[in-house]
């Protein structure tokens, strides 16, 4: 009788372990919620004429190792009428052409 009881306990343990393993596999398949981050461009200094040529590059590098991800937003904080933000094509950016922006904001702040 003792052997039959231990066989039943082993069988129950196997069923339990199989169920736990299946649950772990199912949980790994669930989508992981990601949190979008709002970045204030330039941090407390905000958006404007950079204090030195690599200011915004240095600021962007300071967000590492995590950096920017899909869903994040860049908030350009500036005084209305004093600065602006333009979305331009790569070609227009590379040639400093502001004649045909994709979008333009001048009433700050812009996100």
Fold and architecture overview:
There is one protein chain. By secondary structure, this protein is of the alpha+beta class. It folds into 2 domains: 1-32; 38-105, Cupredoxins -  blue copper proteins (Immunoglobulin-like). The chain contains 3 helices and 4 strands. The chain has helices spanning 2-29, 55-61, 90-94, and strands at residues 38-40, 73-75, 85-87, 103-105. The strands form 2 sheets. Strands 1-2 form a two-stranded parallel ribbon. α2 links the parallel β1 (38-40) and β2 (73-75).
Present the secondary structure layout.
Elements: H1 2-29, E1 38-40, H2 55-61, E2 73-75, E3 85-87, H3 90-94, E4 103-105
Parallel strand pairs: 1-2
Antiparallel strand pairs: 3-4
Based on CA atoms alone, the radius of gyration comes out at: 28 Å
How many strands, what sense, and barrel or not for the largest sheet? 2 strands, parallel
The helical percent reads: 25-40%
Q: Tell me, what is the CATH class of the largest domain?
A: Mainly Beta
Strand order in the sheet with the most strands: 1-2
Number of domains: 2
Net shape:
rod-shaped
Estimate the strand proportion: 5-15%
Low-confidence stretches: none
CATH homology superfamily of the largest domain? Cupredoxins -  blue copper proteins
Rounded mean pLDDT score = 82
Count of DSSP strands: 4
Following the backbone from N to C, one meets helices and strands in this order, namely: HEHEEHE
CATH topology of the largest domain, anyone? Immunoglobulin-like
Distance between the termini: 74 Å
Q: How does CATH name the architecture of the largest domain?
A: Sandwich
Q: Indicate the structural class.
A: alpha+beta
* Continuous helix count: 3
Keywords: Signal
Domain Phytocyanin: 37-111
Signal peptide: 1-36
Pfam families: Cu_bind_like
């Amino acid at each position: 009788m003792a052997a039959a009881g231990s066989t039943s306990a082993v069988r129950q343990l196997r069923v339990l372990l199989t169920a736990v393993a299946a649950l772990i596999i199912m949980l790994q398949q669930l989508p992981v919620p990601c949190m979008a981050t709002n970045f204030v461009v330039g941090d407390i200094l905000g958006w404007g004429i950079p204090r030195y040529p690599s200011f915004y590059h240095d600021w962007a590098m300071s967000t590492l190792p995590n950096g920017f991800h899909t869903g994040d937003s860049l908030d350009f904080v500036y005084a209305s009428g004093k600065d602006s933000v333009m979305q331009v094509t790569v070609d227009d950016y590379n040639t400093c052409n502001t004649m045909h922006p994709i979008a333009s904001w001048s009433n700050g702040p812009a996100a």
